[in-house]
Design brief:
By secondary structure, this protein is mainly beta. It contains 1 helix and 26 strands. The protein is globular, with a radius of gyration of 21 Å. 43% of the residues are buried.
Length: 333
């Protein structure tokens, strides 16, 4: 009996099956990757459930640098089904899209050019291919070869697609902004909206959130929380920028129109004087938001309670070049 107990203790110790309090330890947290806009780099930080915090540089790099000189002005980020990180470039300089080897590859941080163009955001569709949003229609690329497939969205003209996300309802959601709505006498104002397209065919479904809905004015990144609620990073004329939240219960499959439309505010994440740009759900269920200063050349990644929207802390301070896109790596390490 004693031998059995000793053997069990040795196995537990060797495999790390139990923590000091007798409970199974938490898995290692996926790292956080952030695009440093003016630094033309991708930064890497330990995840929220890791035993250490702060920068987690790639081999042969320093500070938080994971990959440098990837694209001229990196913005949106997304990990693909191949475990690699895909980067959007808003500047129009070559390349417009790049593939950065993931943390589990033989050469983490090495990158290759994928396609030309100017893009704000990237996402992966149900077909496993890469979708890129910029000026005009959302474009689709083969994730293996990098070859352009088509202009995916049809039936509704997009002006400046700032953020895209595939929803749990089988739709592609696009945050669209028009800074010059044309009228008989020229520009008559601006329009910020969230437009839906079929995730398989790319056909226009509806303007899910018309301009002004819940306070929507100038949408940036769109994303979904674990409950299926739509999150929209939103800038306003007044400067009271925020992240809006639209619960899944307000979507109707038979008549897919937001039922809470009107003057009711949908503000969920708020903070005085901030410039939020990108939002992502962390492995701890909390919400992470990249926020720049007014010049855009500095800023932090902030953490908020995913249930209440309450501010928790500055998770990463002073991202080199100013933070834009954020993404958590798949798996654990």
């Amino acid at each position: 009996m004693r031998k059995t107990v000793v053997l069990l203790a040795l196995l537990v110790s060797a495999t790390g099956m139990l923590a000091a309090d007798g409970l199974p330890p938490l898995p290692h947290s996926p790292d956080l990757f952030v695009s440093g806009f003016f630094a033309a780099s991708i930064e890497r930080y330990y995840g929220p459930r890791s035993s250490v915090t702060g920068p987690h540089a790639a081999p042969a790099e320093t500070a938080a640098v994971y990959s440098r000189n990837v694209v001229r002005r990196p913005w949106g980020l997304a990990f693909g089904p191949d475990g690699n990180l895909y980067v959007a470039n808003v500047s129009g300089a070559t390349p417009g899209l790049a593939r950065v080897n993931g943390p589990f590859s033989a050469s983490p941080g090495a990158w290759t050019a994928l396609a030309d163009g100017a893009f704000n955001d990237v996402a992966f569709g149900p077909d496993g291919n890469l979708y890129a949003a910029g000026h005009g229609a959302v474009r689709r690329y083969d994730v293996v070869t990098g070859a352009w497939i088509d202009e995916f969205t049809t039936g509704y003209p997009l002006t400046d697609a700032r953020g895209i996300a595939f929803g749990p309802d089988g739709k592609l959601y696009v945050g669209n902004y028009d800074g010059c709505v044309t009228g008989p006498t020229g520009c008559t104002g601006t329009r910020g909206e969230v437009v839906r397209f079929d995730a398989l065919t790319g056909k226009f479904v509806d303007v899910y959130l018309p301009s002004g809905t819940g306070g929507l004015q100038w949408p940036w990144k769109v994303a979904f929380d674990p409950t299926g609620a739509l999150l929209v990073v939103n800038w306003t004329v007044s400067g009271n920028n925020n992240v809006l939240r639209f619960p899944a219960s307000q979507r109707s499959p038979s008549a897919p129109v937001f039922t809470g439309r009107g003057t009711r505010s949908a503000a969920f994440l708020t903070r005085d004087g901030w410039f939020p740009l990108y939002v992502a759900v962390g492995p701890d269920g909390q919400l992470y938001v990249s926020a720049s200063n007014s010049a855009g050349d500095a800023g932090d990644v902030l953490r908020f309670d995913g249930r209440t929207g309450a501010f928790i802390d500055v998770f990463v301070a002073n991202v080199d070049g100013g933070p834009r896109g954020i993404a958590f790596a798949p798996g654990s390490h």
